[in-house]
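anyone seen this seq b4? input:
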Amino acid sequence: LSRSLGVIPAVTMLCSCAVAAPPAWRLEALELDAVRDVFPPAERLGDTLDVVRARAVYAGDTLQGWVFLSDEIFPMPAYSGKPISVLVGLRPDATIAGAKIIAHEEPILVIGVKDADLQHFLSQYVGLAAKTQVRVGADDGGGYRGLDAISGATITAMVLNQSLMRSAQVVAAALGLPRAEHAAPAQEQAGATRSAVSRSTEAAAYAIAQAASAGEPEWLQLWKARWIRIAVLLTALLFLVTVLVFQDWLVLRPVLFRRVRIAYLLFTVGFVGFYSMGQLSIVNMLAFNHVLAAGFSWETLLLEPVTFILWAFVAVTIVLWGRGVYCGWLCPFGATQELIHTVAQRFKWPQFEFPAMVHERLWAIKYLILIALFGLSLDSMSRAATVAEVEPFKTVFALHFVRGWPFVLYAAGLLVVAAFNSKFYCKYLCPLGAALSFFTRFRIFDWLRRRRECGNPCQVCAAQCEVGAIRPTGEIIENECHYCLECQVIYHDDHRCPPLVEKRKRREKRETRANEIALQQLE
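predicted toks r here
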């Protein structure tokens, strides 16, 4: 297993060194059939203009407008780390005639988003002026036009919006349309000279500057709009850190500890998972590698506040305590499995566990899945995203089980299995847990206490560990530990921990003997 883990950083390094491939579609290769999706009357296309990478569209001799590819004008890395190529039509009055995605590597658009939802999102741009300030997932107001977002694909929708609108502003500026004042008139573009090219460059730069300065960055607007959600999450994370820091005090009070833990798991499922859709995914890590390869940009990462805050928290806590803090307390799917298992135990449903040897061999599955995903992501994020459907997170929390029956059956099946085998998915299939476990070896703190009797002869903690992260010999396997602290509750419990039980019994015998002697003396 350790040899398998050693492959991961090498694959990661190769991934981060990969160079993003140029878009498969080029403006010169556009065909009329594609152009008619944004300009239905189109009969012919002009050559690519010198002044800007756009082509005129004609119906007979009548100019309909211009078409361009957003990633050639304003390439903005999306969730996959690569730009989305959108064919945009711009009318002479600087309004958008239509938009169509030509090529992309977005995982969420491969599996999870319906074509009807995507078409509805793009149809909202028809008729908008290039100068319009647009907010995705917001209402109209404050000088902004609000558009409906794509359910389950917030970041992708926001990147699409920025790339589409800013590229439209650049083209409008270069063509001298109403968006900008510093460009050559549109009718002069057919015979543009080098001086016009120079002027268009200035116009494009002007449009970009105007787009950037027209208001606050979109990510900042989002953070302000979701300040309550952010405040609740930060408060919950602070509370979790408090639990970790004062864990020795809390585990001495088993009833209080279990109430705190169950309440926090319910919060994780309800608020982090279903309400905020903050379930982290291995796709996040793969996408981050592509963002690094394409040119690091905070703007894309900051577009989803909850996800950004959770990843920042994971980055800190994994160095301090290991991967178990996230996996045991903040993973919505893991919390869902644990709550289901708790209910099943309450009703005394039969439980099954694999023998220790088989259990440890099955761990390898998630590491093999992780390595396969990294390898696939080198070639195509969309292919990697397809395989990453081994994670049922999207089905459960983003789409609420509203998708094809194979996905629903798979996700529901894992939850049913969790009732009989605690956190089955986490233990054997989760590539995210496998990736995080690699960094656990660098943790600073080791606050999980053990006794010399642990493992020989005592097996109480090993039997109670929900993920089987304690070997029969008594050692805690940090790479697999979910930091549930149950072993620490047992460690301090003089009714469950055999060494403490013996001490308690000896103490009680002494007290009983002392009481008997005292009574005899009184008689």
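The mean pLDDT is 84. Residues 31-215 form one domain. kinda curious what u guys think
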